[in-house]
Amino acid sequence: MRKLLLVIILTIGLLMFAEEITITAWTVGPDNPSYYRFDNLKTAAERLNKILKDLGVDLTVKVDGYFDTTDWSSFKQKVVFGIKSGQVVDIICSGHDDIGAWAKAGYIIPLDDYVKKYWDEEYYDFIPSLWEATKYKGKIYGIPQDTEARPFYINKQVLKKLGWSDEEINSLPDRIARGEFTFEDFIEVAKEAVEKGLVEWGLYHRPKAGIDYYQLMISMGIDFYDEEKAVFVYNVKEMKDYFKLLYDLANTYKILPKNMIGTPWTSVHKDVTSGKVLAWMGGTWNWAEWKKDYGKTEEELQDMFILAPVPKFKGRGRPNTLSHPIVYMIPSTSKYPDIAFLLITLASAPELNMRHAVESGHLPIRWQQTVLPEYTKEFIMVEGTKLLPYSGFIPNDDMFNLYNQIIFEGMQMAESGMDPEKVAEDVAKRLKSQLKDRVVIVE
Amino acid sequence: MKRLKPLLLLFPLLAFVIIFFVIPVVLTVVIAFTDMDYSFVWNFVGFQNFRDISTDFIIPRVIANTFIYTFGTLGLFNLGTALLISLLTTSISDRWGNFFRTLWMLPRLTPSVVYGLLWLWMFDPTEYGLVNFIRGLFGLPPQDWLHSAPMWMVIFANGFIGASMGMLVFTAAIKSIPEDYYRAARIDGASWFMVVRRITLPLIKWHLLFVTAYQTLSLLASFEYILIITDGGPVYRTEVWALYTYHNAFSHFRFGYGAALSIILVIIGVVSALVYMKFFGFESLMEKPKVEVE
């Protein structure tokens, strides 16, 4: 802490001729409850200003910018065009998956030296696996802001109505985690629940492009990225199985709506929280959304759901969840990268990050947070943390967004009823045409 | 100085056209021959983007959608409904005519994002959408038109706005037809339909040409309501060429590919305009009159 203070004074000392420095931060939600991504930076500035005032330094640091709640695509557009057009921005808070493209294009700066400088005081207790999500070609480009897990939310009231005992229900997450209850088993339960009229649908997944559906690929044992060669791998035979699964869920078993993709988010959350769906492939942040935006209480949600990893398939794959850490990055256009990093460091204080995690349904990024009283009080935090051992990350590759879009297009086609084999072949052609030598097609 | 004066007076407009039209068009043409992406690097790749367009399996669907959307909206609303409204509202009293024409102008006066969101809320597939709520009052189940009939939804959404422009042009044209023609026709016992067919329509031929050509180009280039209401979905069922260009350029950051797509759209637009002018006999409109009037 003393070293941090000294560095603060020395850094600020160099800028003593300035009376006020504005640090501009662009932060993304897009979910409403994640507003602390921006507000914690403002609190960090307040704390920094108090230190400066106490030390008699005539300088004020002000945080400007915004918290974006539109959608990922719009936010990323704003960032890319903003940086390229020379807009002054000092901190960007976005998904770790943007690191690949933005680092390659030179939009963000490596932070290894900064992290090393404050390691002993601050960064030593960040959860180690999170650093993997912040790297591009071995260098750190982001500071973890939060992480989450993507649980398989199962409506236990529906299981009760199907005749499951409390013991069977409570042991289900563990049985899924051990691979004893597979996705095929889930499909049978979902079909039964729909046929008996207990639910309208057996499964919902996200209706817009994202990363959640890679969990099904991992459950099927499909490997889609070669880390060593930094290329995407598209195995046509395996992907025919994947698209056939989606086709069957919507068209054969009819447990997934054919129009799942494109359904408004509000309709999805209303249906899930009103018991119309047996299982929801969502995120831990949904818990906070359901309480804040959909009027659900903690008791109602705990009565309704059990949380588990996404089940594996018989004889292949593994039960899994995906984490998508959000990170703070410093653009290459920043005029005050040292101060920006100081603010990020101060904003990452355990109690500040904890208030964000509690408010928005995310998980701790530091071990110190797990001993705070709020941690054990929050059901979603404890249950979500249990899923982290099954977690993986999507690759920090600059072509990931394009690859992801093409896979998502294939999903839409399969679920709408197009021949899954043709979909798999068309997706292969499209990937080869657009990603060129960054994808390996395996027939 | 005398020679320079016209140029000086035209300069502000010329500068505006050059900066906001000519330069972007030139840049777009140049970018179409690069593989420019999020890194904004000018890497020239020749005709690769156009080759990629020819092998893009989404393109046939996009072409079909563009054709259906453009000519569906044009025929049903921008031309058809516009003409019908102008004919009907000029056949009744001015007071009521103005009233109905003003009603039809309201969608055009609404900001496009607000208008698009209103359509989404009205046609929300759950019982919470306005239309489904009303259906619920009659015991009918909710319908998901945004998924079951997305092309109709975007045609209607665009059409309610598009009809108003044609309505204004045709109304002005109809009102400028000398009243004597109508009096003579009524004296001869012509019905309303005969009057429209034999007098009104032939005399507003050039206005029909203008609205048809202008609205075709406008519809070819428009996508904002489709973006807001269906975003080209579900599964590309409403992805028109202009929106596909936008998605490639600004969602996928494939600026080179997007620029190539937009050049093809420009070519299609120019060809369409030339075809219309031939069909409507534009040359005869621009001919010098054979009768000299002193």
Automatic annotation (TrEMBL), chain B:
PROSITE patterns: ABC_TM1. It is a multi-pass membrane protein. GO terms for biological process: transmembrane transport. This is Sugar ABC transporter, permease protein. It is found in: Cell membrane. Keywords: Cell membrane, Membrane, Transmembrane, Transmembrane helix, Transport. Belongs to the binding-protein-dependent transport system permease family. InterPro entries: ABC_transporter_permease, MetI-like, MetI-like_sf. One of its GO terms (cellular component) is plasma membrane. It comes from Thermotoga petrophila. The chain crosses the membrane at residues 7-33, 67-90, 102-122, 151-174, 206-228, 255-276. The keyword Transcription does not apply. The keyword Cell membrane applies.
